[in-house]
Amino acid sequence: CDPDWWAAAAKIGQYRQDPSGWRGCRSTGTRGEVVVSWRPSAEFSGNVYRAEGTVAACPEDVWECIKPVAGGLRTKWDQNVKDFEVVEAVSDAVSVCRTTTPSAFVRIISPREFVDVVLMKQYEDGTMLSAATNVEHPQCPPQPNFVRGLNYPCGCFCIPLPGLGSKCPCCSPTLVLRDFWLEEGWEKLHCIILSFLPHPCNMVRHSPVLAFWSQHVSFNC
C-alpha cells in the first residue's frame, strides 16, 4: 500500500502548495464563511474541488470531528456516511478503510462503498492531514446492494491559525482545507439535484465543519 498512500499525500500536498488555477464558484454566508473553488484535474477528465473556511475551534477539536478512525465522530454528524470500518491497520498512521454511503434523493443515487488507503499525518506546525486514495484489498470484495465507488487522491487539512484570536484564550482557530472530486457524469447530475435544494448558509452557520464535505455545498454548473 505504500506507493498508494505516499502518492495521495504528495498530491494533496501539491494542491495545498500550488495556489494557481483555482476558480471560485461558491461562497456561503454574507461573510463567505466557506469558499468553494475548482480547477481541472490532472488525473482524470473532470474537476478537483476545494472547500475552505475558518472554524472557531481548536485544531484538535476539529480533527476529532473528521479524522477517519473506527468509532469516530463523522458517522454521528455526517448524514452522508452510513458506516466506516478499518479493514486493515497497516501502521499507526496508515490503514485500509471501507466507507459506505446511503441512497439519496429518493434512490436516484444508489448506496455506495469506497475502499481507500488512508494516511493520517501531523506536521511540525500543528497542521493535521488526512489523505486517501482508492485501493483494492482482498479482504474487501464488492458487496451486494452497493455500487463500488472510486476515489482519486483527496484529503483534508486542519491548519492552526495563531494570532487570529479565538473564543478560547488557550488555542487558535482552525483553517479547514478540503480537496475532493466528483465522479465523471456525477458533476452535471450534482448541479441539477442541488439546484432544487435550500441554500446551505443556515447549516454552515450552525455547524461550520459540515460545510467542508462536498455533499453539503452546491456548485455553479
From TrEMBL:
InterPro entries: StARD5/6, START-like_dom_sf, START_lipid-bd_dom. Keywords: Lipid transport, Lipid-binding, Transport. One of its GO terms (biological process) is cholesterol import. Residues 18-159 form the START domain. GO terms for molecular function: cholesterol binding; cholesterol transfer activity. SUPFAM superfamilies: Bet v1-like. May be involved in the intracellular transport of sterols or other lipids. May bind cholesterol or other sterols. This is StAR related lipid transfer domain containing 5. The lineage of its organism: Eukaryota, Metazoa, Chordata, Craniata, Vertebrata. The gene is STARD5.
